[in-house]
Structure formats: C-alpha cells, structure tokens
Design goal:
This protein has about 325 residues and is of the alpha+beta class. The protein folds into three domains: about 15-125, no CATH class; about 135-260, no CATH class; about 285-325, no CATH class. It has six helices and 14 strands. The protein has helices at about 15-20, 95-110, 125-130, 200-210, 220-225, 310-325, and strands at about 20, 30-35, 40, 45, 55-60, 65, 75, 145, 150-155, 185-190, 210-215, 250, 285, 295. The strands form four sheets. Strands 1, 2, 3, 5 and 6 form a five-stranded mixed beta sheet that branches. Strands 10-11-8-9-12 form a five-stranded mixed beta sheet, with helices on one face. Strands 4-7 form a two-stranded antiparallel sheet. The longest helix has 19 residues, at about 95-110. It is extended, with a radius of gyration of 30 Å. About 20% of the residues are buried.
Length: about 325
C-alpha cells in the first residue's frame, strides 16, 4: 500500500510518520513542518484563552505557524515548552498544572516499566556511541548552507547531499542529489557573537576571526529546496519524505568542529569550454500586408500575411459589411 500527499499540500510529512513520542518523557507529540522549513513537535489542541500568546501555534494546510487558529479559537503548544523532563520556572499557573500532570504520567509509566527516558551521556566519547534517534548519522565533513544570516548545517559535504523524498517507483529513498553548483557560491559570513559565549566561544572567534565560509544561496526559493533536502525533480512533488530532514540550525559552539576557516576548492563551475556566441540578429523580415502597417515578422509566413492588429480590424470590417448586406472592400 502506497500513500501520497495531495499536490496542493504545503507539507511533505505524512501524519502517520509525524506521530511520535518524546524520548525524554514519553508524551505523544506530532511533528509538523514549520513556516520556515524547520520542524517542530506540537501537542494536541488547547483552548487559546488558557495558553500564553508566546506559546500559541496553529496548523494551516499541514504547516505550523505561530498564533491561534482564528476559525475555532484553539491552538497547539510546542512540546519542549511543557516537557516535564525539563524545569520550567517561569510558566503561568495554568501551564504549570499541565506540566505537573504530564510529570505524574511520566513517573507512572517509568514505574510500570512502560517507558525508559533517554539520558544524554556526559562523556563525549560515549555520546558518539549512542545512536541518535533523529536524522541519519553525520560524516566528518559537514558544510553550512546559508541564506543571508540564516545558517543551517547539513549532515555531509554539499556534493553528497541526497534527496530525502520517497521515490514513487521503488518506494525507497530518492538517489538524486540536492547540490546544484550553479545556484550558489562560497562566501564568508559573520558568526553570531551572541551564540559564541564563554571560553569555547572565545576560542572559536579567535580561530575563525569572527567569520566562516558557508555555501551561500542568494535566492530564497532555492534555499528552501536545499533546506528541504530535495532534488529538482522532487522539489514541488507531492511525494512524502522517506526519512527525516538532516539539516539543523547552525550553532558555532555545538558545530565548532565543522567550521571552515579557508575557502573550499573544487566547487567552481568549469567555464574554460564555454563558447562565445555572437548573435547576428534576425534575418529578413516579412512585412504585414495591411495598408499603412509597418509591423513585420521574423518567421516565413505565406504571401499576404497580416499581423494580429490588421486581422482584428479586417474581421470587424467584414462583420459590419455582412450586417448591412454589402461586400467589404478588398485590402490591397
């Protein structure tokens, strides 16, 4: 059995694939594609009057947007904001009560042996041995793809980016490539100093001089295709994703091992074989047969050819003469 999304749907996530459980507390969540092509885990719907404005999200045609659904007055809440496995000291009383209820449910599931929370290992070496439940395993070389100040890092080098759409013929992951070297170029982009805090942040700034090399995409629609991780054939295709998106927001401290301080080589398009073509202009033109008309055509129409303006005038004259029972005058 194969499932397909409607071609007018803005999201590429099947709802069956979007249902999941929080790995920290076990609460059911639904993953949705955000308006900026990222993904967000949301709860079920709540009355908007009981949720703070900053926590309100709604769904429109499968895509998550901040705010309330004006049609029914309900909204959804991002699960990380109410996850009982995380401390939330500044939430209002109504939301704190919801967090306490989720905490009781989490502890009950743990005591019954129905759920085992995921624990982040403190040892960096051990952390590499734990298989991530999210995107596929990354490689040693990871390139950052940017659109102005928005930076996201991929799982590999740009030339190895593979489309994540489901192939409609094989039902497997598409083997097409995302990268198109004609759509971008390498540029130096400044690092967000607000994120580069502490001793590690200072080391990163000293090492890079405050800027790194990223693959810059000058067009927003092109950046959406890259960040959605789709090839040209599946960019506007209704085919769902075969696997989760492997792009994540770039952070200079978490991804300090992948920052590029020198411009990568070998990505420039080969223009040595390009030929210089000189256009000689159109050949002989055919003049319109209409009286006093100066319009011409570069095609080779039949003798007596008229432009659309003269044809329109001739049809109007014929209609008038037929109405009065007279033959129209022939056009010389």
């Amino acid at each position: 059995m194969s499932m397909h999304l409607h071609r007018s749907n803005q999201t590429k996530i099947l709802r069956q694939a979007g249902a999941s459980l929080c790995k920290y507390c076990g609460t059911p969540v639904e993953w949705f594609q955000r308006y900026d092509a990222l993904r967000i885990p949301l709860t079920n719907e709540f009355p908007s009057r009981r949720v703070p404005t900053s926590l309100r999200w709604h769904i429109n045609r499968g895509v998550a947007y901040p705010g309330t659904d004006a049609s029914n007055g309900y909204c959804r809440v991002p699960h990380p904001a109410i996850c009982p496995a995380v401390d939330h000291p500044d939430l209002p009383p109504t939301i704190q009560d919801l967090v306490r209820r989720l905490a009781v449910r989490m502890r009950t599931a743990i005591e019954r042996g129905e759920f085992e929370p995921f624990v982040e290992p403190d040892d960096p070496v051990a952390a590499e041995e734990v298989e991530s439940p999210g995107p596929e395993k990354v490689r040693q070389v990871r390139h950052v793809v940017g659109y102005h100040s928005l930076l996201r890092i991929g799982p590999c080098a740009i030339e190895d980016l593979q489309c994540i759409a489901r192939d409609e013929h094989t039902e497997h992951r598409c083997e097409g490539r995302v990268a198109d070297l004609s759509e971008g170029r390498w540029e130096r982009v400044a690092i967000n100093e607000e994120q580069a805090t502490g001793r590690l942040g200072q080391m990163v700034l000293n090492l890079t001089g405050g800027s790194i090399w990223v693959w810059h995409l000058p067009d927003f629609n092109v950046s959406l295709r890259w960040w959605n991780q789709r090839c040209h054939d599946h960019f506007n295709s209704p085919q769902p994703d075969h696997t989760e998106n492997e792009f994540v927001p770039f952070h200079p401290l978490r991804h300090d091992a992948f920052v590029l301080t020198e411009r990568p080589t070998g990505y420039d398009l080969n223009t040595e074989d390009a030929l210089l073509v000189i256009h000689d202009g159109p050949g002989e033109r055919t003049k319109c047969a209409g009286p006093s008309c100066t319009n011409t055509s570069v095609l080779s129409p039949e003798e007596g050819w008229m432009c659309w303006q003269c044809e329109k005038l001739l049809r109007r004259r014929r209609a008038v003469h037929q109405r009065w029972g007279q033959a129209p005058e022939e056009v010389p």
